[in-house]
Amino acid sequence: MKLFKRPKKPGVLPMPLWLQGMFELGQAAVLSALVVILPLTGVWAANGFSDRDYASLARLSGQAWLLLHGVPLTLSLPAGTIGPEESAGLLSLIPLGLTLIPFFLCWRAGRRLARASYTDQLWQALIGALGTYAMLGVAAAYFSANEDVSISLVAGGLIPLIAAGLGVIIGARQEAGSWVRLIGVDLTDWIARTSQHSRWAGSYLWAAVRAGAVGVTAAVSLSALLLVAALAMNWTQMAAVYQRLDAGIIGGVVLTVGQLGLLPNLVAWTLSWASGAGFSLGTGSTISPLETTVGPLPALPVLAALPGGQMEFAYAALLIPVAAGVLAGWWFLREGENHFDEWLAIKVDARWFTATVSTVCLGGIIGIVAGFFAAGAALLSRGSLGIGRFVDVGPDPLWTGIWIAAEVAVGAVIGYAAGPWLEREKFRRPASDALGSART
């Protein structure tokens, strides 16, 4: 069955799917490269680089394109750059905001490929699309390397496929509307063939996973609001840093675009800070509500919004993950899939015991799921600048996950227990009592 039918003119052969996949993701790669090339060309034209060679500009653009896809760059710094001896480091800090550009371009390509494919032939378009993207990544890694920057060809070919592949698959799934129309596999029929107990257990776990996703989404949203408030309150200091840099119009625009690309990273760092785990900006530095120790920092305007001085109300930030957990527990109550509590109530007559055990277990599951997602966000947002002490930048994924899991779990227990009061449900008499009253 074809997903969607396209009008065809008589005598015109349709484009092969593998060729259309090559064209769609090749176009996405070119458009994402232009996002990097145009600002760098402006800086180059304004004499912003010491090397005025076209080839050096092309190599720098290729390096930036690979970096925003997550490909690490190995830097070899000559003697005298940061020390008396030659040094080497790994540049792996990914500007996640810029990574969204190829992701959404590939998402658009995935939707177009889904419209052009039969349910059992989408793999042809995917092979052509991802194969083209991998070859372009290998070519960029090969031609962008120089005596100061070395890039693994394997990493250049495979790592860009993560953002591109996710974009294509999510776009194709959204266009198809269901996995059965996309890949020909009906998960609903497979679930229907399982036992009732398996379906109840699956519904319970799936609802708990979604509640954990709700919790971490709420925590990220509240952390983003906290970041916006910090930027607004420190706008004067940020403007002063811009004035001291005096980068000009083009340099200021490029600097602003780079900071916008780091906004998702900063949101993840704010989430880690609000959890209590904190983050680091270089070896030996710690920034958290419990302790703040910061060394010399680069002249980046957004860093002027870092918390400092007397932070009497910093501990209140620890309530952000707890509040997100309350929302997650409330959402699970409204979902009505607590089959574990129902099973316990059948097995054990002591309601005080079954309600306590089921709620605590539910909070633990939701907290673990939220901690897992938070650890993943922290892992993506951290990295290394490969220069001096800035080889460790960002939050620690393990501690961020542990703190978020514990705090969201506590909030989920509170939210689920307080859910009936939040819903303002009235007490309902048993059906037998209501029937007796009616007879009377």
TrEMBL record:
Where is the chain membrane-spanning?
A: 64-83, 90-110, 122-143, 150-172, 204-233, 245-263, 313-333, 353-380, 400-419
Q: Which residues form the signal peptide?
A: none
Q: Which UniProt keywords apply?
A: Membrane, Transmembrane, Transmembrane helix
What highest taxon heads this organism's lineage?
Answer: Bacteria
Looking up InterPro entries in the UniProt record yields: DUF6350 (IPR045931)
Report any Pfam family annotated for this entry. DUF6350
Please tell me whether the keyword Transmembrane helix is annotated for this protein.
Answer: yes
Q: Does the keyword Transport apply?
A: no
What protein name is recorded for this chain?
DUF6350 family protein
